[in-house]
Protein 1
Amino acid sequence: MAVSRRGPRERMVFSAAQLIRRDGVAATGLRDIVEHARAPRGSLRHYFPGGKEQLVNEAVEWAGRYAAKRVARFLAEMPEPSPSRLFDAMVRQWTDEYRSAGFAAGCPVVAATVDRAGSAESTGQATAAAFAAWNRPVARALTEMGVPASRAVSLATLMISALEGAIVIARAERDVRALETVARELGPVLDAGVTPRD
Amino acid sequence: MAVSRRGPRERMVFSAAQLIRRDGVAATGLRDIVEHARAPRGSLRHYFPGGKEQLVNEAVEWAGRYAAKRVARFLAEMPEPSPSRLFDAMVRQWTDEYRSAGFAAGCPVVAATVDRAGSAESTGQATAAAFAAWNRPVARALTEMGVPASRAVSLATLMISALEGAIVIARAERDVRALETVARELGPVLDAGVTPRD
DNA sequence: CGCCCTCTATGACAGCCGTCATAGTAGCGG
DNA sequence: CCGCTACTATGACGGCTGTCATAGAGGGCG
């Protein structure tokens, strides 16, 4: 696997993101992460002297970069990009996973935001940065498709909001219905460039 | 307080919902709930023989009923109901809370969905039921406003998805921007297709 | 009174948590 | 060979978790 090619440190961050998005932050133990990453437990302290908080933060940051790269790939694979087609691709990533692998996991950034366990000031900043890192390429893509710059960021926020909400509902219902619904209902809106209220 | 008028059992469910939506399920201890509810710890086992799982499920169900009732109240207070105005009211509930009380808490149903801690089959059903209980009055309100029945459920799902996603982003950013954005961008979309007045 | 039923009090239990202390290994430059 | 650095191994620590066992109030009622 390409994964095991990476160093233990990177594997731990990756495994942390994977377990967090499945079980939540509090329910994910350091020992679980180490085992899932097939990494030596003795190295935990060495690589992450900041403890669990640091590992969680890096996992969130990793997820933000991953989502951003994913957007770029969607656009690269798209012959004639359009807002609705981009949104479709973003949604389809989740419907595909849920259909093939079940509804066990959600978005790690959402998990880290919701399950902040009270403390963790730095985790709050990490989640905000992750959402920003995700929003940025989406908004930029929209502007390149002809959406006015003033609305591009807003539409990107709407897309990500609807997607994240639908992910949660899909997990609860164990059905991709909500994901398909937001794609179907929001797609035309994104293409039309509906004039916002006064 | 009206709250302390209620029996200890109901207070525990209420406190559970309140703590879960702030810290998540796993990070919320039974002892925290009992203390927050000013309820006797000895009664926990008596009222909730199903343990934490039962208490969490009841908190989620309570939240679903609460959200449904809230929709009814929004409509009752609305002179001339419209889809966008309903959505505005739903969003404003959260912007108001965040502005006045800070970004500590989110939606308990989302927390219970994301933070399912692996097990808890019954909690999955409870969260699905809660979303359904919330969707139902929204969809019904939309049909009464002139939205075709076939699209009412879809639009309700879109509204709730966008709202929930924006709640999460707002908490991460510690800013109501995302909430205001989805209200502004989605409002006109929801009204479109509705024949204005008789 | 005595009995029952609802509710409460208290403490112990095993188990997991994140953190940390200590020791040890491998490799490399000198 | 040394010393040094990077990394790993292992186990213990206090603290918190949900669960449970046992005992005891309090009140209605015959």
Note: Residues 51-76 of chain B form the longest helix (26 residues).
Protein 2
Amino acid sequence: MRHAEFDRERVLRAAMCTFMVNGYTKTSMQDLTKATGLHPGSIYCAFDNKKGLFIAAIEQYQQDRTDQFKQLFANDHSTVDNLSDYLAQILQECLSGDATKACLLTKSLSEMGEQDEQIKQITCQFLQSWHQSIAQVFDTAKAQQLIPQKSDSQFLAQYLVMGIYGLRTVANTQPDVEVLQPLADKLLADLIRQ
Amino acid sequence: MRHAEFDRERVLRAAMCTFMVNGYTKTSMQDLTKATGLHPGSIYCAFDNKKGLFIAAIEQYQQDRTDQFKQLFANDHSTVDNLSDYLAQILQECLSGDATKACLLTKSLSEMGEQDEQIKQITCQFLQSWHQSIAQVFDTAKAQQLIPQKSDSQFLAQYLVMGIYGLRTVANTQPDVEVLQPLADKLLADLIRQ
DNA sequence: TCCTTAATTGAATACACATTCAAGAATAAT
DNA sequence: ATTATTCTTGAATGTGTATTCAATTAAGGA
């Protein structure tokens, strides 16, 4: 017996970044061997093929984002403050200039959703689960009486998701905090308004 | 002398649709010859290369959208009603299932903005000009006293643009009028609120 | 220590792709 | 009709691609 020599998470994060910057189609196996340090054969041995590595990278991305999200809301602050911090963090990503400024899930869905049913299902499922996590946050806000009891958490979560998608897209053309911050502020205000 | 035999607009719209469905990278010259009915040599004669055809298609897209926009607002209805109709039209596109459900500009910017400076500039410029057209609509709404005089048209336009980006992205995962209509309604309500 | 099993290596393979080009066809001016 | 000009045709070209595979290397059990 012999174990794999590489660190799976490190390899997946390297692949993840490459896919986020170039997109799936424009990322060549050569790009991936350079980014991961693995030889073609090793990639095919561990992940079957380019698409297998892509899916594994997407799953790692989802895992990382879920952990990050949970950590941000794992405190006893006001839920509204946490939401504000969450938006601030997203804005920072949009403005950072590095790979995280794009969301791998929406980018992949936009690129491949039309042609690849499997990618479409995986990304949609992960985006739905993100939506549900946000809905839970609004449920908490209701329990804290920060928003009206008659509020529809599912709807508010959907609206926030829409706003975040929009913010990220605006950031593509206007990566400017002076533009994005007021948008984020109004978005949050419109969400918690009576 | 001899004139080109093909109808330029028809060719550009065919190419446009192909690019919208597949994206630039995944559209092969073979796809384009099939969609346009032109042979490779004719395409290279008329548009230099694949990217030249792509840029021409983007320009045609922008022209078509601008015409459509102007037509929708060229009446003496309440500006708010026109905005409502505009959002309804966008929703219809999102739900139509055909190529128009994606915006060629944002899709291209997301796919190629990172690698191709020229595409980035063209798409950004066209998206900015769209933003300005919407800002003019809010100026009209101010003149009609439908929104407060102190409103910032630029900001409201940016917020609507953000919302439309978001709506289109939500439609990728939830192409459902029951989901999208309430989002569009709240978006409009939040825009014209005192 | 030897042997089985599995991972690693990187050159070789087969294929798809954008692009070219020389020959042919159509047009308009002379 | 002739000629010059330009467009059209589609097979050929060369490059970049994902993938394979036989040889090699390492690890753990007997």
Note: Chain B touches chain A through 38 residues (CB under 8 Å).
